[in-house]
Every structure is written in structure tokens, then in C-alpha cells.
Design goal:
disordered C terminus, 3 domains, 16 helices, Arc Repressor Mutant, subunit A, 364 residues
Length: 364
Amino acid sequence: MNQEIITFLKAALECSVFRAPTDPGLSYEEILEVGKRVGWQPGEIGDALQYATTQFFGSKRLLPDSNTVASWVFLSREDPEYRNFDAFDFVVSELNARARADGAANARLERSLVVERAVAKGISRRDIEVAITYQIMGNMLTEKDGVLGFPHNDGVRGLPSEQLQTTGAGKPRRNEVRARAYPIVKDVIERRTDGRPKHVESLDAFAEELHKLGYGAFRLWWAQTVAELRHGDPHSSPVSVSVLAAALVEGALTFVVKHARKLGLGVFQSNVFERDTRSWKIDDLVASAASGSDSAILDPQTKNRVVWKHSFEPGSESMRAECCLISRQARRTSVPKKHATRRRLQSKSCAAYSTGYRNFRRLD
């Protein structure tokens, strides 16, 4: 098992506590997104995940595993440091005060009350929520029905800062993995509420929009084509990669035509798009995507590059026909195995493109 991935996923789940202390953890889709941003594939992320997380019954998110949270009892300073130990001290001090006044067994306080008192003292709301959640998950505090307490009736407890003076008095320990994971997790969690797509990669983000555009039925086709494109090697299979890329370009432009026309944007206003979709041409889509002034999807340079490549690369009608002709010849003639294999791949790509091409023409 890849220990590097396991360590990174553990750090990512821990960072979720620092970024969203009232809703800690990451969903399966979010943890895949975090891992993909550092270059790992979904399969290897999924294989490593069982060693990095504990999913509690009824929880919608994956949380740090039990061994990780058990280690939180031993406080030490780290670099970067995302814990405010003044906030940690404040929580314990508030409960200590209740223990002195009411006895250890009755040392209880409403979580919301502790938070508001901390904010009034100048501690940020996130810092105090992190301090509470971190100590609850590490079994240093308990919470039931929004009421905080100590896990054992041992009376007044030492402050976290006092523990740091004995165990973490030296130079902070550098945590490179956490430093790498934190900004990614921060961005993923912020996407829950800020209106941005859940995925930062445009091909993945576009899949999320297909249902809103009225083409939810094509999401599987889109996902499969994107997956094939990512697994393709432009050096060993240039035809396959070019054909798949051309299919996605044509698909993306086709899917946004109705939406753009409905909003009255300058793009796709040509009367060409009033005809049956089976009569649309990629050249028309590209040309119209570059029109509309400020509404243009493609700038003139990109348009010219797409048109030029479309004319000479496998995305064009002539090259698609040539590709299929070559594949048929490969089946009929006796050629070296490696060449026949290459041509079979080309034939498969042509078939995939043709299927998508025909489906786009039947959108209406």
C-alpha cells in the first residue's frame, strides 16, 4: 500500500477539522477531489482510504481514523500551526471554573455559551470551535445535546498550554504533508457554500452542469469520454486522443447553445442553430462561439487554432473517414501485429466519436 497517499489523506481529513470544525470530515467525492489535485488516480485513493479514515454510523463525511485522533492527546507545537492554544485554554478554563463552583460531576457548560464568551474575549469563532471539536474528537472533552464536559470526574484539569511547556517547549515540528494538504482542503470546503463548482478541473465541473443545461442524460457519456481521454497517451495514440478531444469540444459547444440563446447572449445567435441539430457543423459551433463580443467563449486566436487543427487533425470529417478506412484495411491485410493493434485502437476511437456525433445530432 502506498504510504505516501495514506499519510496525505490522513492530513487532509485532519485539516477538515481546522477548516470546518462544526462540520468536520470530507465526503467521498471531496476526498477524491483532494487526492486528484496532487496527481493521484481515484483507484489508488480509494485503496488507501481504508487505512486513513473511520466512517462513523450516521455520518455523511469521512473522519480521521481512531489512531490519529488518539494521538491528539499529546499536544506539541507544529509548523504550520492551525490550532490556537489560547482557545484551547479558554475552553478548559471555563469548565474548570464550573468544577470549582459545582463539583467535578457537575462541570457542564453549553457549547454555544462557551463560544460566545470566547468571541467576546477576542478569540475568533473558528478558533474556539476548532478547540472544542479537536478536544471532543480526541476524547479530552465530551459533548451531549450541545453540553460540554470532561470525560472523567477528576476535578480541575491542567491547561493545554501547561502541557505544551513540558512536551512542546522546543522548536515546532515541521509538518510538510499538512502544509501541502491544507490549502487544497480549504478550497474544497469553501466550494460547499460559495457557489463555485465542486470540481476545480473544468472537464469535471462541466459534468455537474449538464443537468442544469437539460442534458443530464449525457453525463455518463461525458464522464466516460473524459476518462478515456485522460488515459490516452498523445505520443503512442495521437489519433485516439485527438478524436476524443474533438468529441468533447463539439459536445460542450452543442450543450450550451440553447442556454446561450435563451439568455440572449451574443454567442450562438446564428440562424443555423434554429435548424435540426443533425444539420449543425463543428465549424458553425466554433465560429459562433467566437462571436458576440464580450459574450464570446473563444477569442479569435483560439478560434483560428481550433479551426486549423480541425481541418488537419483527426477531428475533421476527412481524417475521421481516413482513420476508419485505415482500420478496415488493417483488418483485411496482413500487417505486423503492433501496427494492427494501433489501427484497432484508431478504429475504436472512430467508433466512439461516431456514436457521440450521431447522439449530438439527435438532441431534439
